[in-house]
Amino acid sequence: MKVVILAGGLGTRLAEETNIRPKPMIEIGGRPLLWHIMKIYSRFGYNDFVICLGYLGYVIKEYFSNYALHHSDVTYDFRTGEVTMGNAITEDWRVSLIETGADTMTGGRLQRVRRLLGDESFMMTYGDGVADVDLAALLKFHKSHGRLATVTAVQPPGRFGVLELGESDRVTAFREKPQDEVGWINGGFFVLEPAALDLIENDATIWEREPLEKLVAGDQLRAHRHRGFWQPVDTLRDKRYLEELWTSRTAPWKTWP
User: Fold this and answer.
1) Structure confidence at residue 88 (pLDDT)
2) In whole angstroms, what is the distance from residue 134 CA to residue 180 CA?
């Protein structure tokens, strides 16, 4: 089963990082966010990746072109011109890096890679978030309902605490906003049938709008509720949070050895 990862957006809210590299290449623990996402899928045996490139896509190409170099010890012998690598790290991956346009929207990017997907179900997610999703359970759920699409629904933590107020504007309590007050949102980690892409018109189509709305109207979308860890990287605060988890060796999304 192929895994499509959308990795072409601008990431404007993280301009401090994304003015020199695409958002999926922001590093957590010295490894690109994209690498972390791919490791999540690889843990469940999904190793055939289609990466949709756009903004600064050449940075992603360079990374994979020199993957062994990035993750190995290297000795350069300038007398002989010989280069040797030690402790080389390899992956059981097949990675297709596809230019899908600098200004193409999310739906348009999916449409541009459809020719690579064949007639089988495939997985799709965004290149800017990690989770400890049970992908085997996700796929089982998708097959059980027989619809064209499954989205992983998540409940993000409340961003602001809640003040409880009493008489005379007295603050009676302060508490973190519970997740059940936030509601369920699109957390990525889709499973899709190729026919779902028939709802995409052109490069300007935003996957999260007309296509998903039409899937809902046609009763072709189901939600797999994920109550575990999920975290997008939209701000520097998000990046620092993931970095702290990784550094402390408590990263919930690291389910691989």
Assistant:
1) 77
2) 21
